[in-house]
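To: structure desk
From: M.T.
Subject: fold request, one chain
Message: Could you run this one when you get a chance? Sequence is below, nothing fancy, just the single chain.
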Amino acid sequence: MSRGVYRPVAWSFELEAAARALSAASPNAWISHVTAAVLRNQLLPPWLSDSEELHLSKPRALPEVRRKGIIGHTVLAFDDEVETEDGIRISTRPRTWLDLAQRLSLYDLVCMGDELVRIPRFGLEGRSEPFATIDGLRTLVGRHPNLQGIIRARAALELMRVGADSGPETLLRLAMCDAGLPEPELQVELHPGSAGTPTADLGYRRRRLAVQYDGGHHLLPAQIFSDRRRDKAFEAAGWTVLLLTKEDLADGFAGAIGRIKRILRSAYISPSTAAGF
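Reply: Done. Structure tokens follow.
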């Protein structure tokens, strides 16, 4: 189980101050796009995650944004796509995801969407409901058939799944599918339905293969101990446990895919015929 994989929910003070001032000076407009995503700590690719861009959206009835240093957008947005948080008028997380469909790559958009629909752990995050659902995002996309990036948003929806706890987990799943492997199960419970059962990030239950992506926080002593206990439980039950790290992410999981295929071959199962794992 990957825990603590997201940055703390705390707005950047400098960007927040600028956004607050801009919001106060722009009645009926709202902070949007990359700015909204950064303020909300939504999952962005590294090259955008620390962006200091200031994006402001306005309805078509208002004049275009002409402030120096501000990236303006004139858009159609429904009332439930904009909200006020801590005094700042800002696009909702789902609407921000949609606005970024034009700018992000398909897989980055899937990662961002998977973060929205994942089921949170109340004890760690203080909430029990996801930020969005795939059906809700599909409704949102259906409202804006002419929005730039809408084709990519539709494609991303078809690739999104509930269960990824981090961007790398989503990218691993996508890489496995691209390589011709059957789609893995996410959040694989060792003993389904049992409270406190160890969980693998993804894997194939029928072939007893558990794949774990261990991010940076897994190097902490307490987490290392927890991970070892988790993996030993799977191994004691006859599972093969494959541990992946940021080094595997760096090569697009190419090496990891080869290892997974070798494990499947060792069980005399061809990946191309392994549907239903």
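Reply (cont.): The chain has a mean pLDDT of 89. Let me know if you need anything else for the meeting.
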